[in-house]
Amino acid sequence: MDYNVVLLKRGRMNTIYFDNAATTMPIASAEEIMARHIRNEWNNPSALYRSAVDAETRMKKEHDMIKSAVRAEKVIITSCGTESNNMVIFSGTKRTGKPMHFISSAYEHACVYECMRELENRGHSVSYINPREDGKIHPEDVAAEVRENTALVSIMHVQNETGAINDIDAIAKAVKRVNRNTLFHSDGVQGFIKVPFDMRRSSVDYYTASAHKVHGLKGTGGVFCSEKAPIRALIYGGGQENGLRSGTENTLGIAVFAAAAEEYLKNREAYAEQIRAVREKMIEGILSIPDTKIISPEDGALHILSVSFIGVRSEVLLHALNARGVEISIGSACSSKKRKNRIHDALGLSPEVSEGTCRISFSHNNTVEEAEAVIAILKEEVEKLRRFRRL
Ligand code: PLP
Predict the structure, then answer these.
(1) Mean pLDDT of all residues in the chain?
(2) 221-225 and 206-210 as β-strands: parallel, antiparallel, unpaired?
(3) Taking the model in full, what pTM does it have?
């Protein structure tokens, strides 16, 4: 197959992009929204004249659109998923002035895990729950750790390296059965819209998201809260976002976030179908290569596929693929420069499986032809790297 044809179809001359868990290509209408903002819609929504009031009205509608994606009662727009998670962990819950207890998982994204480490530095205690063999965090394991002074439990919705989906509502309910005052947060950055979630029908108090994972722009994220969940500002100033997140609003980012969320919601089934077809083709091709192991659970989120090419160093494979125009990842973009993989340790991967593990992640923009092209390249490169290794 002439894979340059595939590359041309994507509109990017030299890459096939399979790193959609790191970030996604913005929706096509982002360009038009951006042009509108630069020309006409650049007013500060806090100002008092007509054009600013119009900007505020538009922005309010966009907030409503964004929060409707998970049927949340409230949304606070932030700058990213990282800020959203920090906000919940450091500014959610009621502070008592005494050391408190927190629960999280051992395989959270760094922006939750490092917050937990910081809480420990500040004198609080944290219990870290390991996933079971199915790659998921189980409600009983979390409930068993809940104490009288457990302030907050934070367990991610979709694991960013494997795609494992945690039943966050079941975990939240199990936690609250032990201590009804304990609050529950889920990092929804990889799950937002892709895995349907109805906050109103759940016991989850806080859910967080990031626009650039759903074809929005970088620089916008959201904290979704139930009306009764306590939340204070992390950033103080002019009182934007109902006093909860000061700083002139990123009106362009918010407009694209709302448009991207709306488009994804509308097309969710069609996108899932496209992603499933590409994923299945990729799995079939990868399994035809000897000594490969699929790490992702079968019932995981469709857009993330973790796979190990045993006997190959994933980092070397990543560069070999990159030299041939293919972009994949060996872990989350934020942790890929660290040598030891905390997530693989939590999953109990053996050193040889861990060493060969790559993450291939999809969006509806990917095609079956792209998967076929990547499989052909993978076959050659894996073979070559294994041969060199044996020499
Ligand atoms: N949480 C998870 C599960 C993620 O995968 C990521 C990014 O990869 C983040 C949080 C951080 O999001 P952001 O890049 O918007 O700060």
Answers:
(1) 94
(2) antiparallel
(3) 0.95
